[in-house]
Amino acid sequence: MASVIPAPKQTTIPVVGGGEFPVRRIYCVGRNYAAHAREMGHDPDREDPFFFMKPADAILPSGATMPYPPKTNSLHHEFEMVVAIGKGGRDIPVDKALDHVFGYGSGLDMTRRDLQADYKKLGRPWDLAKGFDNSAPCTAITPAAKIGHPSKGEIWLKVNGEIRQKSDLSMLIWSVPEVISYLSGYDALAPGDLIFSGTPEGVAAVKKGDKLEGRIEGLEPLSITIG
Predict the structure, then answer these.
(1) Are 180 and 195 in contact (CB under 8 A)?
(2) 139 and 222 in contact (C-beta within 8 Å)?
(3) Are the beta carbons of 108 and 77 closer than 8 angstroms?
(4) 34 versus 224: which is more confidently predicted?
(5) Would you tell me which of 67, 120, 142, 221 could form a disulfide with 16, CB atoms 3.0–4.6 Å apart?
(6) Cα-based distances in Å from 26 to 83, 136, 147, 214
(7) What are the tens digits of pLDDT across the range 29-49?
(8) 20-44 core/surface letters (b: 16 or more CB in 10 A; e: else)
(9) How crowded is residue 220: how many other Cβ atoms within 10 Å of its Cβ?
(10) Rounded CA separation 146/168 (Å)
């Protein structure tokens, strides 16, 4: 049956070595590094992981200019490893979770921090602080078949050439297999899902004209400019 309006374009991300990864859903893990939990005013103890989502078309390719979003005066960067799901499932056991991963990328969870803080005070959802246009810059996906499954390695973000965030993947509170297993107990994961695995400490505001450069050992480097 013909669509009554133009069908939305499928969001895709390039794959290192060729091809495109179609994006279905974007899940983001909150406060998955202890030092980041502390800087946000929370206890870093190993509480159950929690998630928020971004729309698939929030993806912005590396190298692009990100327009400064409206109705915010505090746009923050949160750099993290992105997990690309290649095989779906529900209630996935931890020891089988990595079998469901197609590959990995580097991404930014851009956040309207002032809106998020205001909504939290009012007890309201803060979707508009996280899931806005261009809020998920992401590199090409490197297949796990090429690099394996990173569980350690340096992760850092520079703003205008100066280090803002720096840590190691081994510092994740909940590992990638644990995150996949836990999340799949709530939602059936499917090919095309992305999981932003959490950001280390050092999140801060950016302004128009800033250049962000991020690197995770073994993965494609990420760069964007704030327009």
Answers:
(1) yes
(2) yes
(3) yes
(4) 224
(5) 142
(6) 10, 9, 22, 20
(7) 998 987 666 765 666 666 789
(8) ebebbbbbbbbbbbbebbebeeeee
(9) 18
(10) 21
State both tokens at 50.
């929690």
Query: How far is it, in rounded angstroms, from Cα 119 to Cα 84?
Result: 30
Cα first-last separation, the chain: 41
Residue 30 CA to residue 203 CA, distance in Å, equals: 13
Nearest to residue 206, comparing CAs of 105, 65, 81, 106?
65
Under 8 Å CB-to-CB from 150, ≥6 apart: which residues? 81, 104, 169, 216, 217, 218, 219
Structural contact between residues 29 and 196, judged by C-beta atoms closer than 8 angstroms: yes
The pLDDT tens digits for 68-119 are 999 999 999 999 999 999 999 999 999 999 999 999 999 999 999 999 999 9
Using the Cα atoms of residue 146, residue 85, residue 154 and residue 56 in order, give the sign of their dihedral: positive
Both tokens of 80, joined, read 């993290």
CB 201 within 8 A of CB 167: yes
